[in-house]
Amino acid sequence: MAKLTSTTVGKRYAKALFELTQPEGTSDATLAELMTIADVFSENPDLMSVLTSVNIPEPDKQALLKSLTKDASALVQHLFDLVYENRRIADLPMIIQQYKVLVDRENEVVTAKVTTAIPLDDAQTARLSDKLKALFKAQTVVIENDVDPKIIGGVKIEANDRVLDGTISTKLANIRQSITD
């Protein structure tokens, strides 16, 4: 039997959680709780290693997990317990990420990773945001601008499982490829 990827596991748990929170109108609150816990993991990179270590006794790991979720809702606590019991705790960051995707889709929010050779100024960001709102039929666009001088110029946009690559480096690579073919 093939091992499930972290993305597949993340999507399954996230969908199940979303199906529980969406009808109750608690999707945003649940996401806020999950993002707070995700921040704890980000700030403490060794935390996941502790929870997945075979050298740490189970009661200690369970106590740590309980302390992480002590202020969380019963649903989030149950999610963490279930993920831990099913030995999927290492997939937790992907579960949270996939849940955020579902909540953002419901709220018509698109997060776009935008790569440019130089940082975008406020006017460029606003124009790009307006264009992406129309393209993705979104109410809100969150732009994460990454600067990569290797792209030479142009822009690469990654959003909603789509990549729009208008970078000069890609155009040059395509020209190179067509010449050698």
Automatic annotation (TrEMBL):
<dbReference type="GO" id="GO:0016787">
    <property type="term" value="F:hydrolase activity"/>
</dbReference>
<comment type="function">
    <text>This protein is part of the stalk that links CF(0) to CF(1). It either transmits conformational changes from CF(0) to CF(1) or is implicated in proton conduction.</text>
</comment>
<dbReference type="GO" id="GO:0045259">
    <property type="term" value="C:proton-transporting ATP synthase complex"/>
</dbReference>
<comment type="similarity">
    <text>Belongs to the ATPase delta chain family.</text>
</comment>
<keyword id="KW-0813">Transport</keyword>
<dbReference type="Pfam" id="PF00213">
    <property type="entry name" value="OSCP"/>
</dbReference>
<dbReference type="GO" id="GO:0046933">
    <property type="term" value="F:proton-transporting ATP synthase activity, rotational mechanism"/>
</dbReference>
<dbReference type="InterPro" id="IPR020781">
    <property type="entry name" value="ATPase_OSCP/d_CS"/>
</dbReference>
<keyword id="KW-0139">CF(1)</keyword>
<protein>
    <recommendedName>
        <fullName>ATP synthase subunit delta</fullName>
    </recommendedName>
</protein>
<dbReference type="InterPro" id="IPR000711">
    <property type="entry name" value="ATPase_OSCP/dsu"/>
</dbReference>
<keyword id="KW-0472">Membrane</keyword>
<dbReference type="GO" id="GO:0005886">
    <property type="term" value="C:plasma membrane"/>
</dbReference>
<keyword id="KW-1003">Cell membrane</keyword>
<keyword id="KW-0066">ATP synthesis</keyword>
<keyword id="KW-0406">Ion transport</keyword>
<comment type="function">
    <text>F(1)F(0) ATP synthase produces ATP from ADP in the presence of a proton or sodium gradient. F-type ATPases consist of two structural domains, F(1) containing the extramembraneous catalytic core and F(0) containing the membrane proton channel, linked together by a central stalk and a peripheral stalk. During catalysis, ATP synthesis in the catalytic domain of F(1) is coupled via a rotary mechanism of the central stalk subunits to proton translocation.</text>
</comment>
<dbReference type="InterPro" id="IPR026015">
    <property type="entry name" value="ATP_synth_OSCP/delta_N_sf"/>
</dbReference>
<keyword id="KW-0378">Hydrolase</keyword>
<keyword id="KW-0375">Hydrogen ion transport</keyword>
